[in-house]
Amino acid sequence: MGINNLIQFLSLRFPEVFHVTPSIDHFAGCNVFIDCAILLQRSLHAAATGVLRRRRQEYLRASEAERQYIDARGIRVEICNHAAKPLLRLNQEIRAVKSKGGIKATFVLGSSLTVRDLYIASKVGGDGKGANVLDSRNPHLLNCLRAFFEGKPVARLYASPSEKDILVIAQRLMDAFARIEIRQPDIAQRCVEFCEDDDYVLSDDTNAIAFGAPNVIRDYCGRNVCNTLNHNRMLDIMGFSRQQFIDFCVLCGSDDTSLIPHIGPERAYHIISSFGDLQGFLESPALDAVLQSPNVAKILEKRQITVEQLRERVGDVEALRGAFDIRRART
Predict the structure, then answer these.
(1) What is the rounded CA–CA span in Å between residue 299 and residue 295?
(2) Could you read off the pLDDT of 26-36 as tens digits, one per residue?
(3) What is the C-alpha to C-alpha distance for residues 87 and 176, in angstroms, rounded to an integer?
(4) Is 330 exposed, middle or buried (0-12, 13-18, 19+ CB in 10 A)?
(5) Cα 320 from Cα 151, distance rounded (Å)
(6) In whole angstroms, what separates CA 166 from the centre of its chain?
(7) Domains and their CATH numbers in the chain
(8) SS3 call for 256
(9) Considering only CA atoms, which of 33, 9, 8 is closest in space to residue 201?
(10) Which residues pair with 229 in a beta bridge?
(11) Rounded Cα gap, residues 112 and 308, in angstroms
């Protein structure tokens, strides 16, 4: 999630922006806002995979009579319980830090999937688009689970939490004395809005960097070595102002879709460094040269938009910048 290839670009071009932080003790005495969105996405996927695999084995060992009943609600509860464990473990590690008054951590959760969304999804769940294993009200779910257990072709099974599921996970965290904020949607943005100048956001969503989080903790729960990125230091190393970095992020695009085809971080960095800002590039002949490229034309055709429509889309620079120009509520 977030800005396309931003971390790869920074790692290769400006590796000094990352500071290796092997221990969570480093954040003692600091405010840390934890973006639970990607953490939950990963843990839900792992939990659903493990639970469904085990349930399939139990189904195959069961008698014909026992196979008539599939406990969809039990599967949902089990997946949510397993998915909460990494967050509970993180909370335990944070609470174990005692120096400098400990870490003032806030877990920020939310779900973009409402109860109404689940109701609507249950009406169209049989069209091959997949089935949410956490949506026990979906009348198509039992058939999908049975087909999966029997090894038959089945629509994709996935785990997407509703507001109710998020509240259950939040309650488990509160029972473990964690501080909770529930916000909808755009959890990374909400974390940044909470920040004061020296606070931290724990998130692997690169939007947290684009939104201007003062400090971002990355890969704490991942396979790589944990590292932190200070926003002001990054700007100094890149030679950008905050406004120029926003323009850079706009050009890079987000969620695997570039603003202008064939402009990734390297070209975006060169463009902003050369023209000073996004407006200067969009008003220059250089944009025409990019849009006239045959490769760009092919991609626009796949996206089913014309060059004129793309020009109109990129014309409102202030609106494009506004997506990343987040005002922190606590400053």
Answers:
(1) 7
(2) 999 999 999 99
(3) 10
(4) exposed
(5) 47
(6) 16
(7) 6-232 (3.40.50.1010), 239-322 (1.10.150.20)
(8) coil
(9) 33
(10) 18, 216
(11) 33
At 259, which helix (H) or strand (E)?
Answer: none
| Helices 307-315 and 294-303, axial angle in degrees (round to 10) | 80
User: For 232-257, what is each residue's pLDDT tens digit?
Assistant: 999 999 999 999 999 999 999 987 67
Contacts of 205 (CB under 8 A, 6+ apart): 1, 2, 35, 37, 38, 187, 188
Residues in the chain: 331
With a pLDDT cut of 70, the percent of the chain lying above it is: 93
> Residue 275's closest CA among 294, 311, 250, 308?
250
CA distances, 91 to each of 132, 138, 165, 192 (Å):
28, 33, 19, 20
Residue 117, pLDDT above cutoff 80: no
- Average pLDDT in the chain: 90
Predicted pLDDT of residue 291? 86
Place of tokens 């089913």: 304
Residue 192 has pLDDT above 90, yes or no: yes
Give the whole-angstrom CA distance, residue 85 versus residue 91: 10
pLDDT of the residue at 331: 46
**Strand bridging mode 157-158 / 179-182:** unpaired
**What's the predicted TM-score (pTM) here?**
0.89
pLDDT band at residue 121 under the 50/70/90 scheme: low
Across the chain, the runs of DSSP E, i.e. the strands, are 18-20, 31-35, 104-109, 131-132, 157-158, 179-182, 200-202, 215-218, 227-230
Which contiguous run of DSSP H or E holds residue 291?
Answer: helix 285-291
Tell me the mean pLDDT in the region 8-16.
Answer: 97
CA distance 103 to 268: 37
Q: In 127-264, where does DSSP find H-type helix?
A: 141-149, 163-175, 187-194, 207-210, 231-238, 242-252
Find, among 136, 135, 168, 140, the residue nearest to 154 by Cα.
140
Owner of token pair 């971390």: 7
Beta bridge partners of 200: 32, 215
Report yes or no: 229 and 214 within 8 Å, Cβ to Cβ: no
